[in-house]
Amino acid sequence: MTLETPPADVAALLERIQQYIFGKRVRVKSFFEDFDPMRSYKVSKSRFLRCLDIATLPVTAEEMETIADAYRDAETGDVKWKQFVDDCDRVFRTTHLEMDPLTVPPAPGGILPPRFQPKDTGALETDVDSLLKRLALLVKTRGVVFKYCFQDFDKPHHNYTTGLHHGSCSETRFKRAFPFAKRFTEGEIDLLAQKFMDKRGDVNYLHIHDIITTNTFAFPPAPGTSLLTMRPDSRVWDQQSMEPELKIQALVVMNRIRIREFFQDFDKLRSGFVTRQQARAILDSSLGVKVPDADWEMLVDKYSRDDGMFCWVALCEGVDEAFTVKYLEKDPMRKVNLPDGKTTEPARRNRLSISPAEQELIDSLETDIRRKISQMRKAMKPVFQDFDRTKRGHVTKTQFARAMSMCGFQLNDDQTDLIALKYCNLGNHNEFDYREFVACVDPTEGFEEQRVKMSDESTYFDKRGTLIGTARGIRV
């Protein structure tokens, strides 16, 4: 049944059977179950030999006898077919893992010896490595799948379910289908063919494909070129010097969060204190306020007791100052201002700290742009809105330079970087706030809104239509 018959050794026979059933995906167990209806996991020797013959395993009649004798039960004389099946199925899985749950099972087919071993080329091994590196680089840069070039010339093999895509082809076909014949000499291609030639004289191209696509020949990825790649920044941002209470207050006001209710869920006794871990969990998870580690340390130092408890009441009172004034009942005539855009600006904006010299240069540049816009009488905002598809009010710095060029302003890189210091207000150097820029340099911006506003209030009637300054008894 097989071309090669090794010595009648049970271990060697099992290895040969495992190679066969792994390639053919044979379920040996199904051939024995019909002969063991009581599930005693034992059958007579004649039935065992009959099952092996039905399964068409690559063993001879003498080797079947050897296997049957190895698994024979000394008491009954029957053959333990279940033990034989478990030994064969170890190529797919590890049985009885429930007895040793810490065991790490091998991958399917992992216990089998490698199907192919390259030949030892001796002194030419260094040359082969250099050829493989060149081949891996060409495959990577040109996007070629090496094994696909040879699958049409694949040779069948008796150990596999299908004759296609076994992984080897003849030497002549290998040279014919080699994808980089112009980059390699005939001697180099011959060296690769001799290195990966099997016992039948065929070249195992699949093994070459596996080698050049593994991490051994993987090339480091190219450095990122994205404009959003954060690099070490020596500039100072506003939020770096801002108190953490102001940041939390801005986020609470912007999102209209009832911060006290979250802390009260952890403070059942209303003592006004929670643990530090609970306070950090509330700020990070429940509220969605991502407090940096440096700001958290400042909050801990300011609102913690000696025993480590965090005073959330004091923090909430400081945050609530954006909505009301403490002890307002003692001063009923005091006026309380509602929160506005300036209150939430720390949560929405993070501006750069600009030196007076830089501010002077920016003002001069804005004056020139404003004067030229007034002369051209060209609307700037629609040009920027074409780049802002999501209506966020921000464009990239490159898009800002393109929009200015479309409007007739040829700004160099230094001028673009200079004006970006003022209007890149999201904590990075790339996102440019064009709405704030247009409102500053375009004198016609907002003119239409001002036109539709009511001029002056009526001299004779108030907003309800009642006459002003007349007696009640006047008849119309």
From TrEMBL:
The organism that produces this protein has a lineage beginning with: Eukaryota, Sar, Alveolata, Colpodellida, Chromeraceae
Q: What is this protein called?
A: EF-hand domain-containing protein
SUPFAM superfamilies from the UniProt entry: EF-hand
- Ranges that cross the membrane: none
